[in-house]
Write a sequence for this structure.
């Protein structure tokens, strides 16, 4: 029987794993599970005889692909696929897909969890601030950004967005104010929420220059990727501007420095938490399983990214 492997250093909820099992076993595959692995060697051994691989933020590089001679498809159960070496997958004749939108609401809800926690001074007892009436800037208007906009309206926020790849008319159509550049977004908004992928263009693109445009009391929320932040520049700015706050579900490389220099206005979850809900796990996991089966049995390449 051909094997489908779930390899997740940060496991799916058990209900999601059972859903994936149902889909793959009904289609005639054996499901193999590698969870909470601590060593790359475990992943290299696990991929040796599988035809399909379902991962989350797990790194799938050339070494992993070399170790998987039977592998035909990798599905990243989630949105960002910067953890997968696409060029190497293509060379190996392996299809790579993501599952766009499936965990977007989960990430968007956490943006507001972080925000309420942050603007209320981390619940330390002092008087905080409210979100109502504040200007929220959304950088990149994809699936997560659109969910953030929807929820922000419930908080009675003024919502703005900039997306280099999304026409202003689409942003307007969602009842959001389009702005012409990321510079304008940062200069306009009290709070900016990042939803850009990590690419050659975006890596280290959010730092001193952009964030320094924010008005007094500005809050930066990052549930996107660690790599998009210029940590050195942001730290320097936050030392100069004690009014700024940084909230994230991605622990920065310089976490200790942020904690030391920006106490009371910096918070990051120890693990990436945005998509870590049972609902998102089920949605993304089952979508991944269905995409694996549709590809292996019908050659369907919807959501292929390489
Ligand atoms: C994504 O790109 O889908 C999110 O960052 C979630 O990542 P995770 O599956 O590792 O939680």
């Amino acid at each position: 029987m051909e094997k489908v492997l779930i390899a997740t250093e940060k496991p799916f909820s058990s209900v999601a794993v059972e859903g994936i099992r149902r889909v793959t076993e009904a289609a005639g595959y054996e499901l193999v599970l590698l969870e909470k692995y601590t060593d790359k060697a475990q992943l290299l051994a696990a991929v040796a005889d599988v035809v399909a691989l379902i991962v989350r933020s797990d790194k799938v590089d050339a070494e992993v692909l070399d170790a998987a001679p039977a592998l035909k498809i990798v599905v990243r159960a989630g949105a960002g696929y910067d953890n997968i070496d696409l060029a190497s997958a293509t060379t190996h004749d392996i299809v790579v897909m993501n599952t766009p939108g499936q965990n977007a609401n989960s990430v968007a809800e956490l943006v507001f969890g972080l925000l309420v926690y942050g603007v209320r001074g981390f619940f330390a007892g002092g008087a905080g601030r409210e979100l109502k009436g504040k200007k929220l800037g959304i950088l990149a208007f994809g699936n997560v950004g659109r969910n953030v906009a929807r929820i922000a309206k419930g908080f009675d926020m003024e919502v703005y967005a900039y997306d280099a790849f999304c026409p202003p008319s689409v942003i307007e159509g969602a009842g959001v104010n389009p702005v012409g550049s990321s510079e304008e977004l940062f200069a306009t908004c009290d709070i900016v929420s990042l939803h850009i992928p990590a690419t050659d263009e975006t890596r280290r693109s959010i730092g001193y220059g952009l964030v320094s445009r924010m008005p007094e009391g500005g809050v930066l929320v990052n549930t996107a990727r660690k790599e998009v932040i210029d940590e050195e520049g942001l730290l320097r700015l936050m030392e100069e501007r004690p009014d700024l706050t940084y909230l994230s579900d991605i622990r920065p490389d310089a976490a200790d420095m942020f904690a030391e220099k920006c106490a009371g206005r910096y918070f990051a979850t120890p693990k990436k938490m945005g998509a870590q809900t049972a609902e998102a796990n089920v949605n993304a996991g089952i979508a991944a399983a269905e995409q694996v089966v549709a590809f292996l049995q019908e050659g369907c390449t919807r959501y292929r990214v390489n």
Notes: The longest strand covers residues 3-8. Residues 162 and 180 are 7 Å apart (CA to CA). The chain has two domains: 3-102+277-298, 104-268.
